[in-house]
Design goal:
The complex is a heterodimer of chains A (283) and B (277). Chain A has helices spanning 2-18, 80-88, 110-117, 135-140, 160-172, 188-200, 218-234, 246-252, 275-279; strands at 25-26, 38-51, 54-65, 69-74, 95-100, 103-104, 120-123, 206-210, 238-242, 255-260, 263-269. Chain A is of the alpha/beta class and 283 residues long. In chain A, the strands form two sheets. A six-stranded mixed β-sheet of chain A has the order 7-8-9-4-10-11, with helices on both faces. Chain B folds into two domains: 8-54; 66-276, MetI-like fold (Orthogonal Bundle). Classes of the chains: A alpha/beta (283), B mainly alpha (277). Chains A and B meet through helix 3, strand 7 and helix 6 of A and helix 8 and helix 9 of B. Chain B: One of its GO terms (molecular function) is ABC-type phosphonate transporter activity.
Chain lengths: 283, 277
C-alpha cells in the first residue's frame, strides 16, 4: 500500500515537472562536478539496446541541459553511434525511455515525431550529402522538417526566403561561393562544412554529431570542429557529439560521457578530466 | 631455408585441400543435375544427326536469301516500318520507365510502403516478367485491336516488369546515410525519397532505363509477328511467301538498328554516369 502511494506521488511529481508551464529543469548534479540550472533538452532513463541476442549497452541514464555540449566517448563497438540514433528516435530502444525536447520519443510517431525532429540537426562522419545535387539543394534539404513539400526538393524550386536562409548558412560556413557546385565535386572538409550548414539551416535546438571529423585529416578536422562549435555556441544549441579524439572531447565538450562494457562508466565535466582519464576507457 | 620449408605432413595436408571429396549429398546433387540436363535435352528434341545435316539446308537458305532485296520501293516500305518499330519501342520504354518509378517506390522495402504492400507489388512484377512480351502483345491485340498501339502497350507492361524490379533493388541498395540525415531533421518519407533516395539511385536508374530501351527495341522488332505493329510483320510475310531476299533485308535492318541502339545507349551511359558506375 505504502509502495503504491509513493509510486503515485512520484508519478504526479514527474508529470508536474514535465508540464509545459513548468519546463523540466536540471537542478541536480548528474555526474561529477556538474550543476547547471537549465531546462533539460535530452534525458535518457535506463536506456538499453540489443541487436538480436547481442547486448550493446544497458542502463544508460543521463540528463543534458540546454546549451550544453556533451562528448560521448568510448572504444569501437561500445555503441556510441547506436546511442546517438536512439536519442534521435531513429532506431527504437530495447528498454528504458528517451525524452527529446520534452517528448518521450517511443510514445510519439508520425507528425509529432517529425515536429520534434524539425528542431534537431545531424552531422555524420561521412557527410551524407546527396552527391549529384548542388550544394545549395543539399543545404535546403535541412529545411524539409519545417517546410515539407516539393518546393524544398531543389534550389530551382525553392522560395526566395528559403534560398536566402540556405545561402546565409553557407555564408556562415564560408562556402557561399560554392552554392551551385555539385556536392560530389567538394573536398572532404568542404563536404563536412556543407553538412554543418544543412544541420544548422533550420536553427535547431539540438545538434547531434557522429564523429564529425573522423574522415578528415587532422588539420581539416580541427577546422571543422572549430567552425562547428563556434556556430553552435553562439546560438545556445545543445550538442551531443561522439569522438575518438580525446583532445576534441575535452576541448569542445562541457561534459564527457564515457561508454565502456555496455554502460556509462564516466560522467564528468570536461574541466575535471585529463587525457589519462579518458584513455582508460579504451583499455 | 630448410627450417621454413613445409614438413611432409603439411605438404600432404595442402595437397588434400586441392582435391576435396564431395559429400554423398553433393554427389547425389551433381548426378541429379546431370539427369535433369539430359532429360531437358531429350524433351527439346536435341539431335546430333539434325545438327550435322543442317549446314547444307542453311547454305540453301543463304543462297536463296542473298543478295538481300535492295529494291528502293521495298527499302522505303521497310524503312518506314522500322521507324514505326522504333516509335513503338521509344514510346513504350519512356512511358514504362516513368510508370516504373512509383511502382518501384511501392516495391522497395523500408521506403514508403509497408512489407505487405512491398510483397504484393513485387509478386505482381514477377507475374509481369513471367509472361513473355509476345504474349502481352497478343493480349493487347485482343484488347485494343491490331496495330502499333497494342505493341506499345506490351512494351510498357514489359518495361514496368523489368524496371520496376530493378529500380526497387537500386533504391534498396542506395547509401542510407543521406536519407538518415534528412529523417533526423524531420523530413517526411516522401521528401526523403525525393531528395535522397531517388537522386542517390539516379545513375543506376539511367543505366537500367537504357537497358530497358535496348530491350524494347529488340522486342518491338518481333511484335509484328502477332499483329502488334512494327517491322516484324514484314519478316513473317517474307518467310510465309518464301521471299527470302526481303526477309534477309528485314533481318539485316533489325541487326543494324539494334546494334546501333546498343552503341548509342552505351555511349550515353558512359557520358551520363560513366565515372560513377
Amino acid at each position: 500500500m505504502r509502495d503504491t502511494l509513493s509510486s503515485t506521488i512520484s508519478s504526479v511529481t514527474d508529470l508536474l515537472l514535465r508540464s509545459p508551464a513548468a519546463p523540466d529543469v536540471l537542478t541536480e548534479q548528474t555526474g561529477a562536478a556538474f550543476a547547471p540550472v537549465s531546462p533539460v533538452e535530452i534525458e535518457a532513463r535506463a536506456v538499453s539496446k540489443t541487436f538480436g541476442a547481442t547486448p550493446i549497452f544497458s542502463d544508460v541514464s543521463f540528463r543534458l541541459a540546454r546549451g550544453e555540449a556533451t562528448a560521448l566517448v568510448g572504444a569501437n563497438g561500445t555503441g556510441k553511434s547506436t546511442l546517438l540514433r536512439c536519442l534521435m528516435g531513429l532506431i527504437p530502444t530495447s528498454g528504458g525511455t528517451v525524452h527529446l525536447l520534452g517528448q518521450q520519443t517511443n510514445e510519439i510517431a508520425g507528425r509529432e515525431m517529425r515536429n520534434i525532429r524539425a528542431q534537431v540537426g545531424l552531422v555524420s562522419q561521412k557527410h551524407n550529402l546527396v552527391p549529384r545535387l548542388s550544394v545549395l539543394s543539399n543545404v535546403l534539404h535541412g529545411l524539409l522538417g519545417k517546410h515539407p513539400g516539393i518546393r524544398h526538393w531543389s534550389h530551382s524550386l525553392a522560395p526566395q526566403s528559403s534560398r536566402e536562409t540556405a545561402m546565409q548558412a553557407l555564408e556562415r560556413v564560408g562556402l557561399a561561393d560554392f552554392a551551385h557546385r555539385r556536392a560530389d565535386r567538394l573536398s572532404g572538409g568542404q563536404s563536412q562544412r556543407v553538412a554543418i550548414a544543412r544541420a544548422i539551416v533550420g536553427a535547431p535546438k539540438v545538434l547531434f554529431a557522429d564523429e564529425p571529423c573522423a574522415s578528415l585529416d587532422p588539420s581539416a578536422g580541427e577546422d571543422v570542429m572549430e567552425l562547428f562549435f563556434r556556430l553552435v555556441r553562439d546560438e545556445n544549441v545543445t550538442v551531443v557529439f561522439t569522438s575518438h579524439n580525446i583532445e576534441h572531447a575535452l576541448k569542445y565538450g562541457d561534459r564527457v560521457l564515457g561508454l565502456a562494457q555496455g554502460r556509462i562508466q564516466l560522467d564528468a565535466t570536461a574541466a575535471s578530466l585529463s587525457s589519462a582519464d579518458l584513455r582508460g576507457l579504451y583499455d | 631455408m630448410t627450417d621454413t620449408a613445409p614438413s611432409r605432413n603439411e605438404r600432404t595436408r595442402f595437397e588434400l585441400a586441392r582435391f576435396e571429396r564431395p559429400s554423398a549429398i553433393s554427389f547425389l546433387g551433381y548426378v541429379l543435375g546431370l539427369v535433369i540436363i539430359f532429360w531437358c535435352l531429350a524433351g527439346a528434341g536435341f539431335s546430333l544427326e539434325k545438327v550435322a545435316s543442317s549446314p547444307p539446308r542453311f547454305a540453301d537458305f543463304a543462297a536463296r536469301a542473298f543478295p538481300p532485296n535492295l529494291d528502293p520501293q521495298v527499302l522505303s516500305r521497310l524503312s518506314w516500318k522500322m521507324v514505326e518499330t522504333l516509335q513503338i519501342a521509344v514510346a513504350g520504354a519512356v512511358i514504362g520507365v516513368i510508370l516504373s518509378v512509383p511502382v518501384a517506390l511501392l516495391t522497395a522495402k523500408g521506403l514508403i510502403a509497408g512489407p505487405w504492400v512491398n510483397q504484393i507489388v513485387r509478386t505482381g512484377l514477377s507475374f509481369i516478367r513471367a509472361v513473355p512480351d509476345i504474349a502481352w502483345a497478343l493480349v493487347f491485340v485482343v484488347a485494343v485491336g491490331l496495330g502499333p498501339f497494342a505493341g506499345m502497350l506490351a512494351i510498357v507492361i514489359d518495361t514496368i516488369g523489368f524496371c520496376g524490379r530493378f529500380f526497387a533493388d537500386d533504391m534498396e541498395a542506395t547509401d542510407k546515410g543521406p536519407a538518415e540525415s534528412l529523417t533526423a531533421t524531420g523530413a517526411r518519407k516522401l521528401d526523403v525519397v525525393a531528395c535522397a533516395t531517388i537522386p542517390g539511385s539516379l545513375p543506376a536508374f539511367i543505366s537500367t532505363s537504357l537497358f530497358a530501351l535496348e530491350k524494347a527495341v529488340r522486342s518491338s522488332t518481333i511484335l509484328g509477328l502477332v499483329g502488334a505493329g512494327g517491322i516484324g510483320i514484314e519478316l513473317k510475310v517474307g518467310f510465309d511467301l518464301f521471299d527470302y531476299p526481303t526477309a534477309m533485308t528485314v533481318i539485316l535492318m533489325i541487326a543494324v538498328v539494334v546494334i546501333g541502339i546498343e552503341l548509342v545507349s552505351g555511349w550515353a551511359r558512359t557520358k551520363i554516369i560513366g565515372e560513377q558506375r
